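Input record, target 12 of the design panel.
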C-alpha cells in the first residue's frame, strides 16, 4: 500500500509492526527449573537464547525484506538490522527482570517510545550493555540458587 501511494512511511510502520511481532513471540517465561537445570553457564545460556530469538525473528523479517526487494525500495533495507533490536532488548529485559513481568513490560514500552522519538534512540544502544550485565547477573542468581 505504501508503494501504490508513494508513501515510504507506511513501509516503515510495517517494519515497526514486524519488530513488535518478532519480539512479542518471546514474552513467555520458561519455568525457573529449566534455568536451574541447564548445562550452560548463565552467560552462554543468555547468548544461546538471544541467538535463537534472532533466528526465529527471521521468519517474520524475511518476508518484509522480500517485499522491499520486490518493490525495489533498497534504501529502506538499511532499517532491516534495526528490526533485530526489539527482540534482543525484549530478551534482555525478560531475564533482567525475570521475577517482575510488569516492570519488564513498562521498560519495553519505554524502549518503543524512545525509538519513536529519534533523538532518544541512541539511549537504547547505551542501555544494551547494562541490560546484558543485569540479565547475566540475574541468571547467575537463579542458576546457582540450588547449587
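The sequence produced for target 12 reads:
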Amino acid at each position: 500500500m505504501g508503494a501504490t501511494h508513494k508513501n515510504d512511511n507506511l513501509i516503515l510502520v510495517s517494519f515497526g509492526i514486524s519488530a513488535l511481532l518478532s519480539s512479542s513471540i518471546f514474552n513467555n517465561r520458561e519455568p525457573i527449573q529449566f534455568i536451574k537445570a541447564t548445562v550452560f553457564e548463565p552467560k552462554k545460556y543468555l547468548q544461546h537464547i538471544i541467538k535463537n530469538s534472532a533466528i526465529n525473528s527471521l521468519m517474520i523479517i524475511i518476508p518484509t525484506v522480500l517485499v522491499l526487494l520486490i518493490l525495489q525500495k533498497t534504501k529502506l533495507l538499511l532499517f532491516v538490522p534495526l528490526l533485530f533490536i526489539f527482540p534482543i532488548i525484549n530478551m534482555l529485559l525478560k531475564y533482567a527482570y525475570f521475577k517482575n513481568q510488569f516492570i519488564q513490560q513498562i521498560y519495553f514500552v519505554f524502549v518503543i517510545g524512545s525509538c519513536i522519538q529519534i533523538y532518544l534512540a541512541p539511549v537504547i544502544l547505551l542501555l544494551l550493555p547494562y541490560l546484558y550485565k543485569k540479565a547475566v547477573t540475574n541468571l547467575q542468581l537463579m542458576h546457582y540458587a540450588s547449587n
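The two ends are 56 Å apart (CA to CA).
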